[in-house]
Amino acid sequence: MTTAAAPTTSVAEPPVRAEIPPAARAGLLLRVFRITRSWLVLGSAVVLWQVVVEVFGIAPYILPAPSEMIASFADNAGLFLDGLLMTTLMSLGGFGVALVVGVALAVLMARSALFEELVYPFLNIVRVMPTVAVAPLLIIWFGRNALPIIICSFLIAVFPILVDVAHGLTSVDEDLVSVMKLANASELSILLHVRIPNALPYLFSSFRVAAPGAVVGALLGEFIGARRGLGYLITVYSAQLNTAAVFVLALLSCLVGIVFFNVCVWLERIVVPWRTVVR
Hints:
Elements: H1 22-56, H2 66-75, H3 77-111, H4 113-128, H5 131-142, H6 146-170, H7 174-182, H8 187-225, H9 230-239, H10 243-271
Helix pairs in contact: 2-10, 3-4, 3-6, 3-8, 3-9, 3-10, 5-6, 5-8, 6-8, 8-9, 8-10, 9-10
């Protein structure tokens, strides 16, 4: 006589939870802190600013609280954003002209010592001449339109591009140039395959100075003679002692310069990835 075996019941094991090792968790937290630490400091500064203004009862026309600045932006958002757009366009125009003219002059100066000797004194005059003194003349000559603003932006942005690109074109490895000449390479071929690749890091380094400078030049032109733009609005609200609006406009101006700078850094990482920075 056979007896049936008792059925066996299998007990499901609880799922194993994946745990992050302590070292990896600490590294993750450290990376998050490095990413957010600048924003934490900025937020703490804004909170401290608000507290100081409220505790000491500082008059709004002297130092407005961040809450008042937010309210001013909310009340004039359309006008401020229009000024932001106009200043950005003027800055882009001045920077674009400075890029074309600066690179062209740099190539000519790098290839001709006579041209450099003849042009460099005039470039030094442009460099040391205060743009604020030239801007009224530009308004007289060209009127109250976009052209004087673009020229002011160009005058500040062109010199860093010109100097750095000329230096990059002339600081090539002479042995490499000699090898190219032994291979019967033309001057144009040497320029395209040796000098320009060598000058690219110098070009993007100049962008870090020229791009924010273009914004400063555009603002200066708008201060002197414009009917739109952040610089024009700053003069209007300054005359009204509306300090909160002036602070907002100044922050928007800083935003344009910061965006220009970071776009140039991003382009540098894409175009010249072989350049490394040692800290």
